[in-house]
DNA sequence: GTCTATACATAGATAGAC
DNA sequence: GTCTATCTATGTATAGAC
């Protein structure tokens, strides 16, 4: 699996899922021409993620977003009813893409050892392709309304569960050593998160995506 | 080393360092009675960290802080000249305590293997004793003014350097295997951070500080 | 569909009384 | 030292013109 292939796949999913999102938010979006909506939604989401890689969502004003997206403040409110709804829109879209791609990839593996490698590699590739979104989600998680916060936590635990299941299967199959499965999955997840949260560090140290992924796989295999 | 001893030590450092901080910010603090200042500064800092475990520093209003600390808005401005200065005050105080305690602890180890264990254990204990502060620093790092952001990064890299040095010494001494030292230190750091960033998760899964610390040591020793 | 103008709310900071 | 009252800036959201 090569990173470029992976990135293409993510881009395709993005388009598909944009339409689903549009359906779910039909009430709030006042603009009727579908093409226009998707075009502008992408502008808006990209601009938001871009701004929020530098400051928090809270600190981003609608004025900021207007300037960065090229739409007027008034026009922006044709695409969402409140700033908070924009936040929810972004989160749910990203979550859907991420879960879909990740699950697809893992299914390609035939045994636990291969599934583990695939899960690690595709998670890191995914967070590379959608870095701003992953960063955004991690940082903004606690600023969400209750309901949305629960979804974020559920999503976090779901990803971790993918790893727990793989590890348990591996132990049953006699491929992995016995040990604390939950802690093993937790530390693997911690390593995965470090890639998108500390990208500035790895960039300055010239660590590539592949190098990092291989190292995490190496660590995981050492403890399992 | 027991966690309770450790916690006591941190509390003592807190008092000592409060005085240093007071010196550094003498100009901004209008209140003259030293005792009063320390008393209220602690109230203010604790209240801030408490509020900011639920929302961002930005989202915390001076009105919120006034309510939580028991001081009026006007009185608060006798202890700092701007909200941003309060932020800097908290960060620099915490950083000093953390660096001091950590360095002290590591120095107690006699060989690289022991130093590594001590470094891991004391970092996790430290982040347990000062959890709100560690969380706060991680989350707020990017919302800082340039100068302060540089200090945060320097501090992050300093901690990592502690690990890099220990690992390198260990390799030279033939205790640890050859390998990518920077990546090894990075993933250890990632695991340490997970403890204070995902405390809700470990709490709900009933993972204790000691159990987690032992596991991280286990992982580190597996790869080294 | 998008813009400009503006209403309305909230937050940071200060002045001056106590 | 601390409080109350208040100024000013900034930000969200809407109305109505184009």
Would you write up a description of this structure?
- The first copy, chain A, has 224 residues and is an all-alpha fold.
- Chain A has two domains: 86 residues, Homeodomain-like (Arc Repressor Mutant, subunit A), CATH 1.10.10; 130 residues, Tetracycline Repressor, domain 2 (Orthogonal Bundle), CATH 1.10.357.10.
- Chain A contains eleven helices and no strands.
- In chain A, helix 1 crosses helix 6, helix 2 packs across helix 3 and helix 8 crosses helix 9.
- The first copy, chain A, is elongated and about 60 Å long.
- The model of chain A has no long low-confidence stretch (mean pLDDT 95).
- At the A-B interface, helix 9 and helix 11 of A face helix 9 and helix 11 of B.
- Chain A binds a DNA duplex (18 and 18 nucleotides) through helix 4.
Summed up:
Two copies of one chain form a homodimer. Chain A has 224 residues and is mainly α.
**Tally of separate helices of chain A:** 11
C-alpha geometry of chain A: elongated
Q: Tell me the total number of β-strands of chain A.
A: 0
Question: Which protein chains are joined by the largest interface, and how many residues does each one contribute?
Answer: A-B, 33 and 33 residues
How large, in whole angstroms, is the Cα Rg of chain A? 19 Å
Cα end-to-end separation of chain A: 23 Å
**What name is given to the CATH topology of the largest domain in chain A?**
Tetracycline Repressor, domain 2
- CATH homologous superfamily classification of the largest domain in chain A: Tetracycline Repressor, domain 2
- Contiguous low-pLDDT stretches of chain A (5 residues minimum) are none
Helix content of chain A: over 70%
Oligomer: homodimer
Round the mean pLDDT of chain A to the nearest integer and report it.
95
């Amino acid at each position: 699996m090569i990173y470029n292939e992976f990135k293409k796949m993510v881009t395709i999913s993005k388009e598909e899922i944009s339409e689903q999102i549009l359906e779910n938010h039909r009430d709030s979006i006042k603009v009727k021409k579908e093409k226009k909506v998707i075009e502008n939604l992408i502008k808006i989401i990209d601009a938001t993620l871009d701004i929020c890689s530098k400051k928090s969502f809270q600190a981003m004003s609608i004025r900021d977003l207007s300037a960065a997206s090229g739409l007027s403040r008034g026009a922006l409110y044709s695409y969402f009813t409140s700033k908070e709804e924009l936040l929810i829109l972004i989160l749910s879209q990203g979550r859907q893409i991420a879960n879909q791609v990740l699950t697809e990839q893992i299914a390609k593996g035939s045994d636990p050892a291969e599934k583990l490698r695939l899960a690690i590699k595709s998670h890191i590739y995914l967070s590379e392709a959608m870095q701003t979104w992953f960063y955004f989600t991690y940082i903004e998680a606690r600023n969400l309304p209750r309901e949305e916060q629960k979804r974020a936590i559920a999503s976090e635990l779901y990803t971790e569960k993918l790893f727990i299941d793989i590890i348990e299967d591996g132990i049953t199959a006699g491929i992995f050593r016995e040990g604390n499965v939950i802690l093993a999955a937790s530390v693997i997840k911690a390593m995965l998160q470090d890639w998108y949260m500390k990208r500035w560090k790895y960039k300055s140290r010239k660590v590539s995506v592949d190098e990092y992924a291989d190292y995490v796989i190496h660590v995981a295999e050492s403890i399992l």
